[in-house]
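Quick start: what a row looks like.
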Amino acid sequence: MKKPATETAHVLMTDWVRYSPLSIEEKTALDHELKEAVLGCPAVARQDPEDCLKLDSGDGVSLVFFGEPTDAIEAAEYLHGRIREHAKAKLRIGLNTGLVTRREDANAKTNVTGPGIEWAQRAMACADGTQIVMTDYFAVNLRAFAAWRDRVADLGEQRTKHDEPFRLFALRHPVETGSEMQKLAIVYRRKAQPDDYVVDLLEKGLPEFGYRVFIDRHLSIGVEWAQAIEREIRGADAIVVVLSERAAASEMVLFELQTAIDQYQQTGNPKILPIRVGSDEPINGDVGAILNPFHFALWTGPGDDRALLVAIHDALTQPVPMVNLPRLERVGGAMPPDSPFYVVRPTDDEFVNALLEKDSIVLVKGARQIGKTSLMARALRRASESGSRVVWTDLQAFGRSQIQTDQDLYLAFAAEFVDQLGLQGDPFEKWRPMFGANTNFERFLSSVVFAQVESPIIWAIDEVDRLFTMPYSGDFFGMVRSWHNRRAARAEETWSRFSVALAYATEAHLFISDLNQSPFNVGTRLDLADFGPTQIEDLNNRYGRPLASESDVTKFIQTVGGQPYLCRRGFDEMVRNNISLTELVDSSAHEEGPFGDHLRRLLVALSGDPLMLEEVRKFLGGAVLSSEEVFFRLRSGGLISGSHRGDARLRCGIYGEYLRLHLLS
């Protein structure tokens, strides 16, 4: 008997995702859809019958081409596009180039066996129906053709069910000539290495893939630059975040990320694509908290240049897996409760005592970046250790849809209570449309929370300013005030063990005119102040005394004031980078200096409000602020300090130097 000939073939194998659970009628319809697509495929139609075998493979169809690999990949693209457009299920497609042997099956029809078929099936098993995948054997052959060379993306090593390794590749979408280019904005830490190298790479390399790239370093710092930043981020299809150690601690990077997320919640764009630079060690802090849910690409050196560009393109065109994120304590954002650099102020003890005494309402007010969140976190841990049950709600983390209406807000609150207290029951189960949102929420607290928790309960709400401008704010804050009144009138009630702690920056009286409906004029009211000389001396000791004398401390305070973030940043720069106080002060208001990122963030925020921008311009020129409302807004934003508009002064020296340069020059 003559031995069958072995041939090289390009095998395209398909099957349906989640085919087995379908009904007979659904399976029949899908099989018909695939058969029609194969018959209508131009790459199949132009082949002689001997050069393209069509084989039934159970859940799908296999096509075996004995000509060029381009025939197989063209057929794969046609089937993928046709099925994706019309069918109600996803079609997995895997390709391989390998050896096959033709044989006659039991029905006297030609079939094939061999590793060419087997490895096509292994590749297909790794697909999910969203992209076309192939083995390295097929990819090598396909890359020999110029039209396909740059469309092959490496997905990394995979393993068969027998734990045998093999490399898998995917087909990227082509860049369409003449179509509108996708807009990418690069978010990065200025004047840092290797960040600048990666930014150069992205700026030069991404246009080759058909993208328009925005990088702010080509603009002069000023109001126009600040406005352009927000405009470009909000108008981008995606932002690419160059995430180095220094970028993770960057205020400007955090602001741009928050802007992108706010826009995404409104429109679904931009996508966020983080690039971890130098190391895949996890990132903590506010930037890390935002990016932890995302996949990231890793760049460790120039050897990763091409792979990085391909990974970004793949992430924008098809869901290609990257890796996952989380890092140690940095300056900026909330501090860990056990941080060795946390400085205790008198307000700390007052806040803790109010919680331990189970006050009905505890208020802590302070400007931006003054440490409210860190203070609350430490105090709540103390209260928890003393037996209270704690629910922490950070309104900054709530999406726009969660605060759109009072019902949306209260349902989100209820879910937090259930999750954090480990309660039984569905918070939506007893929600009745005929009742108002306030009544529904109070019924939930009484029937679910108080019924299952016998301990004192503290509900801490951070960034409560977000609710001041909402149309239902009066109802919400009136309800909180009513809990205080209820405790005073009927101390025996269950409500007597329920405390509410609110942290905010904006003056509440600007938004709540009815004093009888306001919780901000009752309970324990605390103002969190900037660091004084005592706290700065304490911090100096914690950092190993980089300020060697009283005159050094005075010079340091003249530069950064008592602004807690700037104080910690200044000490961190002196110790971490071994620079002197003189070097720190001389570079403090420079774009490339240690505070440049913070100052640019301040300018961007100010430029977004033309009224406040003009007020600050006049104030820098010597004018008095036009109203108490303007004074309170600028104070809550962290720009100025003082007790009233006639007493207004810039919060620290470098604010005046930097803003005069950019607003008065």
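That is the whole record. The chain has four domains: 6-171, 182-324, 346-527, 533-663. The CA atoms of residues 248 and 403 lie 28 Å apart.
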